[in-house]
């Protein structure tokens, strides 16, 4: 009966072998053939192919030439030297390369879709490769997802491995340290993606607001946005406005009728610092609340009680 930790180490080796084949397919077949056709000017610009595959070549080289051979060596010597922790420690810093690939993934999938519609030869070449046995009836996009899922897989396998190690195992210290390193890399890659998404979304919002100098700040965080009715007590009526709530300010905007560049005109900004918000019980205008800040006080009406509560919260 094999010890549990050896079974997990073998599973790591077997999944790594399968993974290297998948990387080979992505880098040496899809990427190489699409690049060759692009250079012949037959499908799409060369830059597009490079953008789709990001740094897959470095990832493939690293796993095929370094990590897999090291793991194989370890498993062959397992009986005399039962350890993999040290090899994984060497692997961990290189996994930061994945940050670039993972960050680029959504853009890559979008490029495949867009250029498949624009260029029939491009679409046909991908379809041709996908028909080959090596593709196992899966699409290019499906294969491209594999590197995105690989780091979480290492993390799970290694966690399992550490749990199953006997307390006196010579690999315990190394394996625990390796797990910590992989955990940090996974966190690093997730944080990089989250931060990139936040900045992209923020930039889109700034464009909708016409890129006003005093508003564009990369450290701002958009908390909520949406249409709202402004109540005018003078003539007892409401008018459609739009709110953007950031961590530091509330922008009270008027939708533009003619949308050239910006969608909204910023009418007013109220600092969140010192702002007070309260619900109003107005029989004529239900779901109303009052926002009072240093700059102005606004009486606003939401479309429903739920929406009002969401804004107040």
From TrEMBL:
PANTHER family per UniProt: FACIOGENITAL DYSPLASIA PROTEIN (PTHR12673), FYVE, RHOGEF AND PH DOMAIN-CONTAINING PROTEIN 2 (PTHR12673:SF82)
Q: Which residues form the DH domain?
A: 4-192
Keyword rRNA-binding annotated: no
State the Gene Ontology BP annotations. Answer: cytoskeleton organization; filopodium assembly
Q: Which residues cross the membrane?
A: none
The name this protein carries in UniProt is FGD2 protein
Task: Provide any one GO MF term from the record.
Answer: zinc ion binding
Its gene is: Fgd2_0
Tagged with keyword RNA-binding = no
């Amino acid at each position: 009966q094999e010890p549990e930790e050896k079974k997990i180490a073998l599973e790591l080796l077997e999944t790594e072998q399968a993974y290297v084949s998948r990387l080979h397919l992505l880098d040496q077949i899809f990427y190489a053939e699409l690049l060759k056709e692009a250079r012949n000017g037959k499908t799409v610009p060369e830059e597009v192919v490079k953008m789709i595959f990001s740094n897959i070549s470095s990832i493939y080289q690293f796993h095929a030439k370094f990590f897999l051979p090291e793991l194989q060596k370890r498993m062959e010597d397992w009986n005399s030297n039962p350890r993999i922790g040290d090899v994984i420690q060497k692997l961990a810093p290189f996994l930061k390369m994945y940050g670039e690939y993972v960050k680029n993934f959504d853009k890559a999938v979008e490029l495949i879709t867009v250029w498949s519609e624009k260029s029939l030869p491009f679409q046909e070449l991908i379809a041709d490769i996908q028909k080959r046995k090596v593709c196992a009836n899966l699409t290019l996009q499906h294969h491209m997802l594999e590197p995105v899922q690989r780091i979480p897989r290492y993390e799970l396998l290694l966690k399992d491995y550490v749990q199953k190690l006997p307390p006196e195992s010579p690999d315990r210290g190394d394996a625990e340290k390796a797990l910590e390193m992989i955990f940090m890399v996974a966190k690093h890659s997730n944080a990089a993606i989250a931060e990139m998404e936040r900045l992209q979304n923020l930039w889109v919002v700034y464009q909708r607001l016409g890129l006003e100098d005093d508003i564009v700040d990369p450290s701002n965080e958009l908390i909520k946005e949406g249409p709202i009715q402004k109540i005018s007590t003078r003539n007892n009526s409401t008018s459609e406005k739009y709110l953007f709530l950031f961590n530091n300010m509330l922008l009270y905007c008027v939708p533009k009728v003619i949308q050239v560049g910006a969608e909204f005109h910023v009418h007013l900004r109220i600092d969140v610092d010192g702002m007070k918000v309260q619900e109003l019980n107005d029989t004529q205008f239900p779901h109303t609340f009052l926002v009072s800040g240093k700059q102005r006080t606004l009486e606003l009406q939401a479309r429903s009680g739920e929406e009002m509560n969401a804004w107040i919260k």
